[in-house]
Automatic annotation (TrEMBL):
Keyword annotations from UniProtKB, A to Z: Transferase
GO cellular component: cytosol
GO-annotated molecular function: transferase activity
PANTHER family listed in its UniProt record: PROTEIN VIAA
Protein name: Protoheme IX farnesyltransferase
Organism encoding this protein: Klebsiella pneumoniae
């Protein structure tokens, strides 16, 4: 059984825990330092949150719960189907199974039985309710453990990418589009050496205003060419070299 399946069965709200984890990540002191130094990166990083959220959800669907907990959940599900009289008959086996699995509920279950000479329907209901509560606590603990691991991994990834992207902040000046694109590329396409090379080129261009202006003009021209080609591919404009009205 996966952790996600357990959450569904016990009605554990994993969405709330995921949101809390992401908020804690963004509020971490490590990132706060970067945001203060490079404020533009905060908005760029915020655009990554939906991707992170989906990645965590997928992780919950992949991770299997521990075998002992899986066995306890199956025992609990079977016990839910029993009438009170059937439950009383099965109670010694149920208690034995809980002790065998070293369930956190084992001691409480034993006490409920020992403290009540007669096992009534009300006690049967109470037993199952407390058992379910124990399972919810275990599920919540597993969720929290997994989310802590995901948060630490994301924090490490974001710190590395922000370190690389931060090196380019002076080079990119007010170009938020370029900053966003380079942030996306920092996920894997660009290596540290690539960044250092871009930084060196940027420093050189900043010292040569005429070359910088020419580079910006060439970049704008190239961008317009790409947009024109995209429109042609969509059939909105004729391809270069074709004649309007030529039906051949």
């Amino acid at each position: 059984m996966t952790l996600d399946m357990l959450n569904v069965m016990l009605a554990v709200s994993e969405e709330g825990m995921i949101e809390e984890m992401l908020l804690a990540l963004l509020a971490s002191p490590q990132l706060a330092v970067f945001f203060e130094k490079f404020p533009r990166l905060k908005n760029i990083i915020a655009a990554d949150i939906p991707r992170w959220r989906e990645a965590v959800r997928a992780r919950l669907k992949e991770v299997n719960i521990p075998p002992d907990l899986d066995a306890e959940v199956q025992t609990y599900q079977q016990a839910q189907l029993l009438s009170t009289s059937q439950f009383i008959v099965q109670l010694p086996q149920i208690l034995g199974k809980l002790h065998q699995l070293q369930s956190p509920f084992a001691a409480q279950a034993q006490k409920l039985v020992d403290d009540n000479a007669t096992f009534t329907p009300a006690l049967h209901t109470l037993f199952l309710q407390r058992w379910r509560l124990s399972l919810v606590v275990q599920a919540t603990s597993l969720n929290q453990q997994l989310l802590d691991e995901e948060r630490d991994q994301l924090l490490s990834e974001v710190q590395e990418r922000m370190t690389l992207s931060g090196q380019l902040d002076p080079v990119l000046a007010e170009n938020d589009t370029a900053a966003g694109r380079l942030w996306d590329m920092s996920a894997g396409e660009l290596k540290r050496g690539d960044y250092q090379l871009i930084v060196r080129y940027g420093d050189f261009l900043n010292q040569q205003p005429e070359l910088l202006q020419l580079a910006e003009q060439l970049g704008a021209f190239k961008g317009s060419e790409i947009r024109a080609e995209e429109r042609c591919a969509d059939g909105n404009l004729p391809q270069p070299g074709t004649r309007a009205g030529n039906g051949a």
